[in-house]
Amino acid sequence: MVLPALSLGLTSITYPSVYVNSSAIVSLAEMDIARGPLMYNVTNHSACVFWRTTDSTNASIQYGLNTSLLETVSSSTLDTVHRVRIAGLQLGTKYYYKVVSDGVPGEMYHFRTAPADGQAFKMIIMGDNRPISDTPVQPQAFSDITDRVIAEEPNLVVLTGDYVYSVTTIAGDNIAKWSAFKAIIDQAAHYAPVYAAIGNHDTGLWTGTLILQYFLDAFEQHNEASTYFSFDYAGVHMMILDSEATNTPLRITGDQYTWLTNELQASQGRMKFMIAHAPMYPLSHIGSSLDVNITERDALQQLFESTNVTVFAAGHDHLWNRITVNGLVHLITGGAGAPLYHTLWGGDFLHYTKAEVSRNLVDISAIGLDAGVKDNYVLPYVGPIEIFLRVVGNTSTRMAGTVPSIYFSQVPAQKGYSWDGAPNATVLTGLPAAPGPHILDVYAENGDSVWSHARFVFTTSGSITTTTTTTTTTSQVPGIQVELILLAGAAGIVIIIVVLVLLRSRRTG
Ligand SMILES: [Fe+2]
Asked: Are 450 and 433 in contact (CB under 8 A)?
């Protein structure tokens, strides 16, 4: 574990008893537990457990490979806050446990130790569960998703931000909101460590004052007062980034950037996952994510590429999306309960992301509320270059003359762009000004001489009418069989695109 040198002034929060276990039916066995137990700092040979009691008690944990719980580790210190470490565990193993306060045992839960470095483990990534309005009441979908996450028995859970609607200077309101959130997420933390990036709704900045103590109190993380930190799990370097609460929201700069750079360079030989709230290639929050400063976003992308980062996962946009840029996989997984965002790119379904990770294989799935796999992506990726369109400008509109943002899943050996059937050019020029449809063909060749082709159809209408058009044609380009995949939608403001159609091609034998 490596922590940056931060002092964020975490202050203790006293929770009125009305909020303690507010959503649970408290049994006699649990009557002394005010919060927890929560798993944290789980390694391949140890695990830490946090819980809080309403009165000072001594503390112990009974644990074992089955429900017999033959082992015990104890702390004789009388306190209301308990952190007990279980050591000497077997790697990659499921253990059962109960916390015991002054001899009173709690409920039985279980957790998994990390496997050996490079071996497979399961990680859940999800975020943006916040309520639809400024209320403590969490979405039912968040509770339902959490139940499914628990059933997955993951090794760890990682959250991408926006847990409450707002943090204000009214302590009672904040306590009510965060208690409602913790009543749900703590159920997952009984079974697996929960790590969390901070979202813009969690900082207080939204209402004018930076207030971090509620976020910091909500998660054990590494028992340190920090909004960005790193840890290693089964040989994978995990980095939780703060895109919101430093002095420069929506930017990774200053001390954090220095820390990030040093960490990445020191972990060159390991697989690396980045977790933040704001995405680098947003679909809805365009211009109000880490793309607020394009030059810095591109420099961050370059840093991640040069240090072999595997995945950058974020939320903020309430949807699911995956784009691969020069080998770096970007996920947006913001579908844990907040109102969904509808964009040209789809993905507007409630979900969590399951990542099964090992040294040789990363298998990523978006799992919907109906338990169905909505999308799946596997690394290492084998196939032709993927071609993506992203649009700079709010509401995904693009003015005539501006240049569409085209990204490739890997650096092409060759590439070409063609507007309206003109000869291929190596440099992309802007959307033609003439009213009517304009076809952009993009070609990319990978190292095996396999060509990819994508076709995007823009219609410049000059009106403010929003139109949706479905196109079912196919086309043929020399040597390439084109298969139509429709990504249809519409967005309209002033002189803009009305229709976007994506054609993605694949070469046939
Ligand atoms: Fe957000």
From this structure: no
Could you tell me if 44 and 149 lie in one domain? no
Both 349 and 435 in one domain: the answer is no
Residues around the ion ligand 1 (C-beta < 5 A): 162, 199-200, 316
Gap from CA of 41 to ligand 1 centroid (Å): 27
Which tens digits make up the pLDDT trace of 15-31?
Answer: 443 333 333 333 444 54
Q: Give residue 229 CA to ligand 1 midpoint distance, Å.
A: 20
Q: For residue 240, report the distance from its CA to the centre of ligand 1, in Å.
A: 16
Task: State how far the Cα of 187 lies from the Cα of 151, in Å rounded to an integer.
Answer: 11
CA of 392 from ligand 1 middle (Å) equals 18
- Domain with residue 102: its CATH number is 2.60.40.10
Residue 188 domain-assigned (yes or no): yes
Under 8 Å CB-to-CB from 177, ≥6 apart: which residues? 135, 136, 164, 165, 166, 167, 214
Distance (angstroms) between ligand 1 centre and the Cα of 230 equals 21
pLDDT tens track for 158-215? 999 999 999 999 999 999 999 999 999 999 999 999 999 999 999 998 778 899 999 9
- Domain boundary (88, 112, 136) is at 112
Written as one letter, the residue type at 27 is: S
